[in-house]
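# nightly structure sweep
# worker-07 picked up a monomer target from the shared queue
# config: single-sequence mode, recycle default, output format = structure tokens
# input follows
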Amino acid sequence: MDYFKRTRISKILLEDAVDLNQTILVMGWVRTIRDSKEIVFIEINDGSCMGNLQAVVNNPGNFGDLKRMLTGAAVRVEGTLVESPAKGQKYELAVTDLQLLGEADQSYPLQKKRHSFEYLREIAHLRPRTNTFGAVNRLRSKIAYAVHKFYQERGFYYIHTPIITASDCEGAGDMFRITTLPHNAAPEENGKVDYTQDFFGSETFLTVSGQLEAEIAALALGDVYTFGPTFRAENSNTSRHASEFWMIEPEMAFCDLDGDMQIATDFLKYLFSFALEQCADEMTFFGTWIDKTVRETLEHIVSSEFERLPYTEAVKILEKSGQKFEFPVGWGVDLQSEHERYLTEIVFKRPVIVYDYPKKIKAFYMRVNDDEKTVAAMDVLVPKVGEIIGGSQREERFDVLKAHMEEKGIPLEPYGWYFDLRKYGTAPHAGFGLGFDRTLMYISGMTNIRDVQPFPRVPRWAKF
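# output follows
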């Protein structure tokens, strides 16, 4: 099949040094085909970049497969790379050999017109072939690489945390239960399901976070990060919620809240800089067709000093603003997106890190401050969306952790191992979480999380 002989179209269209008049082989899919009497023009895309390579077929009668080539067909094309006289393209391929690898008939749904994103979600098996979703998938791959690159260059270790867990990290209860027990005849004991007879011998779920397991690794290896799928059974059908999504969760030993905020700042700037510099082809597309402000937005964040603001001060600013918010603001209330955007877009006009949140609205594992009213938690807020990163210094003190969990009504027994970390060589440590899919939305300007995930999983939708 000449796999190793082929030339990627991105190498032809995106690299400066191109050797003209050489014989090359490309393989891809037909985007359009035009018959102009004695010449046939075929636009070919192989998925490696936004652009198509035009293949020019002279004397089409010499190529038998040509008659069966329609939009969507897979083809193998060999020819000479030459400068193109046509506007809007540097090069074209003068065809010497043409083979049809896979036919596509006239029912092929991706014709040369714009399709709605709603329609394309129905054919998620074909939408990666469109310009938009080709760009989204390439961006997703490149930014995933940037995540690993950032942490690996800084001495972090990549940790694979379990997808199946018995721990509810967030304490929210919105978890998918994993069981092999019959749904209509589960064994019971004292009126409750007897999970000792289940596959794992206990009640288990799909994980909502790898953080707790990351703490185990951090308190042995120093600096670690997780990057994998997480799951929420929250019945929310908004454009920003998905039932399956990917999270990046670094955990740093011997790190306090200040260090946590600095690493979060550095990480966000690194990802956005990487997108601007290494994903130029995709960013140009998003800026042209999706959101004209995406480049400006990312450049502003990369060049900005992040404001750091205690929660108490943030609430005072919002209360004195005179702004009519849909959700009233007051001390002890979790900030909503409208509050966060007001701080970043109106007050400071740059990213803001709000820290030291009220203890009662944050998770049990966050370190209690000396005032005993707040915890060492932080949220990174950015213009347009508000919170993009959430994190904290973890509670490393055994007695304080125990009291905090009892105060929140969290059962202690399932977390015996978590308390052991506080008994045997406890140390300050901190971390945060960044939702990968929402980050891709922010970089690309795509407004629905379903359109940055290859195969979205949302309430009442788990196709493909």
